[in-house]
Design a protein that fits this description.
Length: 490
């Protein structure tokens, strides 16, 4: 809504150079005094603020009798918006969008997000807050969106361990407590005349760019990353940064790689893991794809700890189909790795970003991790970035009582990913120890406290790594996971 149209902002333009910082990697927007004199933050448009609820995932058992019946309540300033009810759905994507008209002369917009479970007579508020639960508080999320800079703060900020635009109830430490923890992904943005995600106020008062001409894709400081990404995450788009050597979250992805995977949902300040999946045809031409349900199961143990797992099973370059082979030999796997993962390009940027999984018809052993380019390739050495799984193994293990194929596939992926993170036999001794396979073997009892999917005793019964809290001969997998282990040693 327009309160006052102004014909010029020459007065404030005098101060542009004052606020362009020469300090690398630091936010350059800190202009409370200047903003106090603004009467219209964007005279080119009537400002509307949009809140997108991008994804909802249950991390606990929300409803004991069925899948949860979620709905969202949004509060934008004083207006309340309620989504439809999504019945019997544990994982939701592209959920709900609300656009609201806001005052053009007020810098901050208050936004509250609540996730509810429709439980008949009494609805239940789920936990999406990083703060501990306390008499009904610490469940919803309160934010303040700043229309002058197109960023929000409050209970989710740039640099949060959960990620910017992601909130998670287990971030309060309730990983193994059922507190109705969920994760919710969202975005908040405003309309912009030139649609470059740089608001009028920032363009005219900070960056000195033209608010009527899109700057999308422009790299003002020639550091390899365009202005809109640097603005999004609080970097100075006019000062060169050595992004190839900057990895704030220590997940093995430098900021160039974080930018390249931004459309996957990566965040330079939150740990991210990427896995490409390719498939070998069966003899009849059938392709046994991994289901979405199995991939969601893989995500859960990681997302509870704010390590976000991303898959490319066909969205971009993944999901490629490999001709049938009755039994794949190791040299053939290396050839598949080179042809279908790197596409015969040893400098392919995906090598330092993605892990690689290929499903084959059969092989010996039936499942194992390897490095595609670090000799001797076997032995779970540093640089182990890949693994192969046999469809014959999946078929056999799917016959276990009370286990679905989705659960078996998820278990195999999480187990082999553990080797890509540096967990291997001898570190600890309970990992991949054949003596733990059966109650008729001594190791079954010696390493019973190592309650990890990396133990053969628990590979198909515990879809999680151990945190080392279970007593003698347990091991803290989570505390020793190395997300950079898959990188090729320099």
């Amino acid at each position: 809504m327009k309160k006052i149209f102004i014909s010029t902002l020459c007065i404030v333009m005098v101060f542009i150079l004052t606020f362009v910082s020469a300090t690398s990697s630091k936010p350059i927007i800190n202009n409370e005094r200047m903003q106090n004199i603004v009467v219209d933050y964007d005279p080119l448009v009537d400002i509307n603020v949009t809140v997108d609820i991008v994804a909802i995932r249950a991390l606990d058992k929300i409803d004991l009798l069925s899948e949860p019946d979620f709905f969202v309540k949004l509060f934008i300033n004083d207006a309340e918006f309620i989504s439809p009810i999504w019945n019997d759905t544990t994982y939701l994507y592209n959920c709900f969008t609300v656009t609201a008209d806001v005052p053009d002369d007020e810098k901050l917009v208050n936004v509250t997000i609540q996730l509810w479970e429709n439980d008949g007579a009494e609805n239940k508020l789920c936990d999406i807050s990083k703060y501990p639960n306390n008499n009904g508080s610490g469940l919803d999320v309160h934010l303040q969106y700043d229309i002058s800079i197109d960023r929000w703060g409050g209970e989710n900020t740039i640099g949060d361990v959960t990620g910017y635009g992601r909130v998670c109830g287990s971030a309060d430490g309730s990983i193994y407590k059922n507190e109705n923890d969920c994760e919710l992904w969202f975005n908040i943005y405003q309309n912009d005349f030139d649609n470059d995600s740089l608001p009028y106020w920032v363009e005219t008062n900070i960056y000195g760019t033209d608010p009527t001409v899109s700057n999308t894709g422009e790299d003002m400081d020639s550091d390899g990353i365009p202005i809109e990404w640097e603005h999004r995450f609080g970097y100075n788009p006019f000062v060169w940064d050595d992004y190839k050597n900057i990895d704030p979250d220590l997940d093995g992805l430098n900021n160039i790689e974080e930018f390249l995977t931004y459309n996957f949902g990566s965040d330079p300040f939150r740990k991210d893991v990427f896995l490409e999946i390719d498939y070998m045809q069966e003899s009849n031409g059938e392709v046994k794809y991994v289901s979405d349900a199995a991939l969601e199961l893989v995500k859960n143990p990681f997302h509870r700890r704010n390590i976000v797992f991303h898959f490319d099973a066909g969205q971009f370059n993944g999901g490629e189909i490999i001709p049938y082979d009755v039994e794949s030999q190791f040299d053939e796997l290396l050839e598949i790795w080179n042809n279908y993962f790197l596409h015969n390009d040893s400098g392919n940027w995906r090598r330092s970003v993605f892990h690689y999984l290929v499903f084959v018809h059969d092989q010996t052993p039936k499942g194992f991790a390897f490095s595609g380019d670090v000799a001797p390739y076997w032995g779970y050495i540093p640089g182990t970035d890949s693994f192969a799984l046999a469809n014959t193994l999946v078929e056999k293990k799917s016959k276990l009582p009370f286990k679905t194929t989705d659960y078996i596939v998820a278990s195999l992926i999480v187990h082999e990913m553990g080797h890509n993170f540096g967990i291997k036999f001898g570190e600890p001794f309970g990992c991949d120890n054949r003596m733990t396979r059966s109650p008729f073997r001594l190791g079954w009892y010696i390493w019973r406290n190592y309650k990890s999917i990396m133990s053969y005793r628990y590979t198909y019964s515990i879809l999680d790594y151990s945190d080392g809290s279970h007593g003698k001969r347990d091991y803290d997998d989570w505390g020793n996971i190395d997300l950079t282990y898959f990188e090729k040693p320099k």
